[in-house]
Amino acid sequence: MNELALPHPDAPAWADALIHSRRTTLPKRLCGPGPDGAQRTAILAAAAAAPDHGQLLPWRFIEVPDTQRARLAQAFADALLARDAAASAEDLEQAREKAHRAPWLLLAVCRARGGDPEVPAQERVLSAGAAIQNMMLLATAMGLGSGLTSGKALSSAPLRALFGLQPDEDALCFINIGHVREARKPRPRPPVDAYFSCLDENTPATR
Known about the structure:
Layout: H1 11-21, E1 30-31, H2 37-47, E2 59-63, H3 69-83, H4 89-97, E3 104-111, H5 121-141, E4 145-149, H6 157-163, E5 169-180
Antiparallel strand pairs: 1-5, 2-3, 3-5, 4-5
């Protein structure tokens, strides 16, 4: 079996450094400008390298440009009101404000149902997660910060209607990308032995 040809002998070390340098940057710690057109194209193209069993392409990304942030803000507010009819004006304004934080904002959508029954939902979600990780790693290599945000509004009727989600689709998360205004303190990474074990012929693989 032929080994993968690497473009440079230092590629493994470079990739290892890139992976471990990625940090989650919350939208409130991001600032403009966001990635330029060429960077956006490259980041989106990185998603295509994710594993995709059956080549179903079970995920897609929807950009929310500045001109549409007000509509997203209202969907957030409507979703909050649907959950809590007594939400205060301050609560509603906080919900709306979340739509305006990230310089570049994308909604990640996964088609976890329908299509080929041989590809279960978990494989499709894993494929979407790999695509998102590829995008964030390339953003990191470009010197940009990125982070994922979610919340109860993702499954709400107002948000589903705004983005035209189909019955077999779910909103997974928002992807936020921009320049880092305030670096977050690095969190400790778990040691390998916290999540790795080896199956023994006599006993189950346990921690």
